[in-house]
Write a structure and sequence with these properties.
This protein has 2 helices and no strands. With 76 residues, it is mainly α. The longest helix is centred in the middle third of the chain and has 50 residues.
Amino acid sequence: MDDLELLQSLDLKQLVEMQEKHRQELKANRERIAARKARTHRLIVRGAIAEKFVPGADRLTNEQFEAALKALFLQR
């Protein structure tokens, strides 16, 4: 193998390594996005469930809603 072939094979090897690194980064990004979407969905669903137990929740401020939830939980 002459020097040119050696350089070309090294470049190909580096390209393959770069592609694999990029694929791993894309996969990690997709997993992060999926986890964030799952958390957002969970928070929305749980918030809707909590609103069922607070009368007039849609008219309360966040602070008032929090106080109402605390009052509900402290009743037990």
